[in-house]
Records
---
Amino acid sequence: MPKTLIEPFRIKSVEPIRMTTRADRERLLQESKLNVFKLRAEDVLIDWLTDSGTGAMSSRQWGAIMEGDESYAGARSFYRLEKVIQDITGMPYFVPTHQGRAAEKVLFAATCKAGDLVPNNCHFDTTRGNLESMGVEAVDCVVAEGLQPATLAPFKGNIDLEKVEAVLQKEGARIPFGMLTVTNNTGGGQPVSMANIRAYAALLKKYGKPFIMDVCRFAENAMFIKMRESGYENTPIRAIVQEMFSYADGATMSAKKDGMVNIGGFIVLRSDAWLDAVKNGLIMMEGFPTYGGMAGRDLEALAVGLEEGMEEDYLRYRLRTAEYLGERLEAAGVGFVKPTGGHAVYIDARTVLPDMPVAHYPAWALCNALYLEGGIRGVEIGSVMFGKRLADGTETYHSMELVRLAFPRRMYTQSHFDYAAEVIAELKDKAASIRGVRITKQPQFLRHFTCECDWV
Ligand SMILES: Cc1ncc(COP(=O)(O)O)c(C=O)c1O
């Protein structure tokens, strides 16, 4: 058997990407105030800023787009998608939204109030933002190894059952439901085991709390279960997915991930207890319940994409791409969050720039160097993103300095990954020439998106 795991698709339509010179990139980055978020996408060669909504749709999805029924109420496309989602999730109530954060906002507005508390393995930043803006406390209870980049463990996204039980005991009256994010994006795209999902569901049941899953990457999580959890080796992905959902009372999803579409999201619920409140909120914030912020054509593309996202050959290739880049980085002596997750590789910038002071933002510096050296765009997950400015002008720094390379689905081939691995290895060799930055202008919140920097 050949060892190479190939891309399980061939290319029908191509989008050129543009090579730039080093001199071009020096100028473009300077014009962008040393912040890669400000670059134009056409000036980026390999864009690994995010896996969200950036993937390639299949010819079947593009075909389905022409079937879109754009009726305001009761569109055929809604019922088609509803059937697919009911089959996958086993939940009868489906509410479409335009993307994941809208699903969160609508569900939380219907179910939470100021003073409440919601536990999760790790809240994604929009989930946390939606809760905190309502005065709800968002508590992360991921297992300890989930916060240790170098520790190897199969399910680093698991929720710590003891920790979450202590929260349930102490704060039960404040908790409207428990959440679990699969895979755990904030913690490196790490999966959650079926045993952990089952045990957490039982715990929530014991305390009389509903169980809501954030299922952006449910298919990638299911593939990890198949590959790593004993007893599931021969179980079809669809059956694993159905079992995962069987333990939950509801879910929110950004379909821009494992839905294989460029826009879309939804809420599913097992009971109709919250349904009226959810639908009323949806009408105010998103749209009528049979389209909820999506065009009929997008509902059609999602109905096909959800099925394609569960294909085993695709998922095997998908997880292998991250693992492959990890192997190349390992060989080059570059540290990263281990094992590699489903949708991204998180480089530990301190292993490339061990001598750079944290005040010079090493992960941000490495992000800029990746663009300058090879036209690659990643995202800093370090002290620019999570550092806190104090009243006296000093800062507290983040515990990790990571650069996330997140892979759009079905878009880049192995040679793109080989190229990136070479660029990163070269950067490690010339680390002494990589320059740190200082922030010259920043907004009060979420400064990484818009801040301006200069070289130190
Ligand atoms: C785990 C998780 N939850 C929620 C969201 C929010 O989804 P969206 O970007 O579609 O609003 C994301 C997006 O990256 C995510 O990764």
Note: Residues 52, 99-101, 124, 126-127, 181, 185, 214, 216, 254, 256, 265 surround pyridoxal-5'-phosphate (CB under 6 Å).
---
Amino acid sequence: MAESVADLAAGVRERSRGQIARAITLVESSRPAHRDRAKELLALLAPDTGHAVRVGISGIPGAGKSTFIDALGTRLIEAGHRVAVVAVDPSSSRTGGSVLGDRTRMAALTASDDAFVRPSPSGDHLGGVARATRESMLVLEAAGFDVVLVETVGVGQSEVAVSEMVDTFLMLALARGGDQLQGIKRGILEIADVIAVNKADGPYEGDARVAARELSGAMRMMNPDPEARRPPVLTCSAQTGAGLDEVWQAVLDHRSHLEAQGSLATRRAEQQQEWMWAMVDAELHDLVRRSPGVREHLAELTAAVRSGETSAVEGAGRVIDAFARDLGER
Ligand SMILES: Nc1nc2c(ncn2[C@@H]2O[C@H](COP(=O)(O)OP(=O)(O)OP(=O)(O)O)[C@@H](O)[C@H]2O)c(=O)[nH]1
Ligand SMILES: [Mg+2]
């Protein structure tokens, strides 16, 4: 017999690691019966959520995200914080989990009682993975973690999904040889709130500083408005710890800047609104796919659309009609 949702919620609030882990497993599941329990759980936990500093951390594979999170998280714990690490990596089911897959890179955090490190939920569908991560973040906030770091790999849409669930988006960049800045795309610069050129140590230190200056210059060109807030570009070394305190201070400064303008509340309000519609889209999508009238003809219809016998527009119309008939019969 599964434990009651009320017991699970109480366990999360009391910071039981076992119950926190089970609550996250529950919110990660997409099975309909689990979704019902998960919604009940999140409703019970809701009053205790929203208090954490939420930071997204992105960068190309090998930029040093895991090493950075381990080193920064350890410092934050020493300063009295409780740190949760979650991830959005829609490829993790295929690759076996590149993000956070290697927990040895977060050895210090994994071993700490004041940290909770959760690998990315698996799934090919970004929307589903992002939902699971977001709900895990809420569970961890209710469990008293006051800093939530969301790691995402710096390719594709997952960064946008993460920027929509955090207060501050931190981009880790690398400088290497002639190819000064790797993995910096214009779109990323537009969502980054703070940029840090990592691995500024040993023989790379000079390169990293040059890269940071160039990047700063490039951003001034992109946005010449002197009033506009431009993301600060710093250098750091996740390995030696140099610059980490300054990077964290820049994250806090960004947050203060938002608070001073009243835009932290606005940002979160907008995120809630977007989130509501994302959930509606996802749930409608599931409802349509599970609806008996749609399922009955789906294989046939899919084949007809694939072969070109039926157009996509016509196929979509039939799916909606079948769904509407099922609704009418309910
Ligand atoms: N010299 C130097 N090496 C670093 C630093 N940070 C990370 N590394 C090394 O870079 C490699 C990749 O680090 P990770 O922390 O695994 O990078 P990641 O961005 O999490 O990589 P993925 O999870 O694969 O996307 C490892 O060998 C680290 O030891 C740094 O500040 N300086
Ligand atoms: Mg990593």
Note: The first strand starts at residue 53 and ends at 59.
